[in-house]
Description:
The chain is an alpha/beta fold. It has helices at residues 18-27, 40-52, 72-81, 104-121, 133-142, 158-166, 184-191, 221-232, 236-250, and strands at residues 2-7, 30-36, 56-60, 87-96, 125-130, 149-151, 170-173, 197-199. α2 (40-52) runs parallel beside α3, α4 packs parallel to α5 and α8 packs across α9 (236-250).
Amino acid sequence: MIWDTHAHLDDKRFDSDREQVIRRARDAGVTNIINIGYDLPSSKRAVDMAMKYDFMYAAVGIHPHNAKECTEEVLSKLERLVQNPKVIAWGEIGLDYYRDLSPRDVQRQVFVKQIELANAAGLPIIIHNRDAHGDLLQVIMKHRPEYGGLFHSYSGSWEMAKELLKEDYYLSFSGPLTYKNARHSVEVATKIPEDRFVVETDCPYLTPEPYRGQRNEPAYVCEVVKKIAELKGLSYEKVAELSTRNAEEFFKIND
Ligand code: NI
């Protein structure tokens, strides 16, 4: 049993073989998949997939790249979407100062607004953070996600991880953990308490070894589980079980 807590199966790159990709995931032991929105259309597609497949869930939100397109109308449409019970988080939201595809002040405003909407909806948030640690921490200290926050594809330092864990955040590991140059995330995965991490693919992006260079897909989340097992000196089954329990705890899945 494994949850892929961050997938983009609505991506065009899955159009020709989506059903096979889903079957391979199930065969590999991926019991649940959360598709994540990054704008309004992808959020709608995530909800549609969650309605079609009982083992899928959805998160809806506006990615910092798309913050400049985020109008009041878009936000009110998202508010309507989250009324669907298969929407279990608001995301992915946050700050991206690496690509700077939206002005930074707009990114911050849209991030804050969505934290407030997630709080009003009773949902945890899925956080995207790239090269924006300082500002991001400032935002979440001031505007606390009341129902929890998950740092997706965490690649920061252990020092920062410790601060986040103290504030009850969860961290998620993805393909780059398996790369030879993964120093920070290797340290974090080794040291993180057993009850505070989940796993993800972020497919079609961030493909783990030994598939690096190809399109990523949910079945490959097993490589991330394998790597964490190796780092923590635990069995594969144990890490799969822990990551599942943590995902169900974080996303408040109780069935
Ligand atoms: Ni993503």
